[in-house]
Design a protein that fits this description.
about 25% strand, about 190 residues, 5-stranded parallel β-sheet, 4-stranded mixed β-sheet
């Protein structure tokens, strides 16, 4: 069986990353894409099952695994509320021939790319401009004006790292951005190992 490949997606909030990634996964089964199952220290919600949506760990277990260097990336979002991706889980999915998709923050994306080199493709989804991003966030109507200001400041900061990604997809037209992402993934997945 051919080993799978690793695809990293990062973007500022409101760039359309989730829409593009979900479209690729739902509409393009030929790419054999699978999300990596992450770990969290929060309790399961609703019908979530361990090993399906997440691996649920206690904060103590999470810290122990951090200390053992088991994560390819992790973040403490709030005190004792961790999220992260285990190296062993990625390897298991790659060995099974899956093309593993990681949807991570910008710094996590850069760090994972450094660890995996040519085995990974890092894709940065970028809004056409900060002004356009402001319009999108205002149209969502889910955030206060203060939260929007905070998101825009974070987005500008994150966009300053875009050159550290293998490819940048500017999402000024969603259908065009979807097709561009599809073409990039097809080339990467179908290309022979470096």
């Amino acid at each position: 069986m051919t080993k799978g490949k690793l695809i990293i997606f990062s973007a500022p909030s409101g760039s359309g990353k989730s829409t593009i990634v979900n479209w690729l996964m739902q509409e393009h089964a030929e790419l054999n894409l699978s999300f990596s199952i992450s770990c969290t220290s929060r309790p399961p919600r609703g019908t979530e099952k361990d090993g399906v949506e997440y691996f649920f760990l206690t904060p103590e277990e999470f810290r122990k695994r951090i200390d053992n260097g088991e994560f390819v990336e992790y973040e403490e979002v709030y005190p004792n509320r961790f999220y992260g991706t285990l190296k062993a889980q990625i390897e298991k999915q790659l060995e099974a021939g899956q093309n593993v998709v990681l949807d991570v923050d910008v710094k996590g994306g850069i760090n994972i790319k450094k660890q995996y080199g040519n085995q990974a493709l890092s894709v940065f989804i970028q809004p056409p401009s900060v002004d356009e991003l402001r319009k999108r966030l205002e149209l969502r109507a889910t955030d206060s004006s203060e939260a929007i200001r905070s998101r825009l400041a974070k987005a500008e900061y994150e966009m300053s790292f875009s050159s550290q990604f293998d490819v940048i997809v500017v999402n000024d037209d969603l259908d065009t951005a979807k097709m561009q992402a599809l073409n990039i993934l097809q080339q990467f997945i179908l290309s022979p190992e470096p």
